[in-house]
Amino acid sequence: MDINVKKFVKDAGAVFSRVVQLTEETLGTSEKTELDAHLEHLADRANATKTWTEKILRNMEAVLTPNPGNRVEDYFYEKIDKKRPSRLTNLEYMGMDMIEAGNNFGPGVAYGSALNKVGQCQQKLGQIERNFIKDAAICYIQPLRKFLEGEMKTVTKEMAILENKRLDLDSCKNKVRKARSMLGQQSESGVSPEVLLDQAERELRIAQSEFDRQAEIVKLLLEGVQSSHAGHLRCLHEFVEAQARYYAQCHATMQDLQRELAGLSGGPYHPTTAPTSNVTDGDEQLARVLCDFTASNSEELSVVKDEVINVIEIPGDDDYVTGISGTRRGKVPAVYLELIDSTPRKFNY
Question: Which residue intervals define the domain BAR in the entry (predicted)?
């Protein structure tokens, strides 16, 4: 393997000079060239953008994919540019178990039928969740990650080069000061101090030129980071729209489930209605069943203990009220019921 010895020695010498310069600056024995105020401001803003983007990205990934192992797996497949195998959500797994349990209890039984419906709903919610996670990744997570791994990574690299150029510049300034201090003295190397000063000043001009050019490159990149905020804002709007759509779909799905459960016979569930303190003609009130009641004719309604139903007072009848459970409706003895309001009490007609 060919090795460019001169280049290796030159690079090693440059690294050594930078280390010496940085050490002297840390100890306060050497001056440090400061960046102009505008460039410093841009650099601070870029660092803040990088820091907060990284935090937001980590939080987003943790919220959308709570399992750390799954996040690592997703990142691995993304890096090797392969499609990740389909993975069910926790809601879908729960829905599967509910459906299996419902089938085991029997779909003709109220509880088994309810388990089936709730399980199917959980599976649907899980699919909605997966779609939302996919949309959020496309519209927000991927652009943020691309920014960090592309634009921000380039900025960090160029900033490091600028720091090296600054150290080289300050090292050259020290050489010029040292050469000037040697004017009129005998040089140990045998080279006249004037020649050494001319050489040091030439190196300083080159270092200053390289530093200024690199500072302009960094400034342009940092200004680009500032303009990237507009792109991030658009991505944020898209994420909020995806999240609003996700919650709307979940809400609609749960409302459908409530209606389906309300229509099941023999179940205690009924969609919640706003309670009132009294039952009057035509007004509905929630009531809890105190003990089982079996209908003796078609006009009555069978209910079970702890079932919650809607009730309506029957004018002129102090012993019965009209009970409503889903699509079922019939008379129920008032003594079997307890009104549900801020102060639970039994019917007292």
Answer: 24-270
